[in-house]
Amino acid sequence: MNLKEHYNNLYTESIKKITHDNYQIDDLIDASLDQRFGITLLIRPSIKIKNEIQKFLNQLKLIDPNQYYYKNSDIHITVMSITSCYEGFKLENINPSEYIKIIKESIITNSNIKIKFKGITASPSCIMIQGFMTNESLNIIRNNLRENFKNTTLEQSIDKRYSIQTAHSTVVRFKKKLNKKSNFLKTIESFKDYNFGSFSPKNIELVYNDWYQKEKHVKKLFKFNI
Length: 226
Known about the structure:
Blueprint: H1 3-19, E1 36-43, H2 47-63, E2 68-69, E3 77-87, H3 96-106, E4 115-123, E5 126-133, H4 137-150, E6 169-173, H5 181-190, E7 195-199, E8 203-210, E9 219-225
Antiparallel strand pairs: 1-3, 1-8, 2-6, 4-5, 4-7, 5-6, 8-9
Helix pairs in contact: 2-5, 3-4
């Protein structure tokens, strides 16, 4: 997959839709009764990169404070959605140690993963930071997870929504009609090729989480060294 091309196509198509008011508003972001939970394997960017992302978000907040902006504590890269969030999923219904065992078998140690956050992409429902990998280690881990989980009877929904191959991070979700839309999109365009920085993650976390990875709902189950 040519990631740069993929991100560019996504950006072009999505910005066109947003421009024509064909974007999706998430009504559940502030719902206190949202019961969609799952388990996810994720990487957290460095604090330096998160702070760079907040500079971008602060500019958008000045234009339209009514959207949903990710806090530093919630910014992440999804390595693999092991069980996609759904209503009724409860941690007590699974044995986390069985999942940890399979993930340990799938992880590559000394993987030298390095991720560069450069530029912005979008979908009709959110704004994302583009992540680029300098080697294939992350995708090798993902393929190992696919193979190893396929050979178990554990509850999982890997690749059910889509087959993840990127290293992006969602940082804005639309929760209201966009105010000052042209200014909002102009600011996004001005960060289109912004270099947020690079980092080398030293671990991957397995978490029990809600749909938005809000810190107050996330429970860390295990941290794997890479």
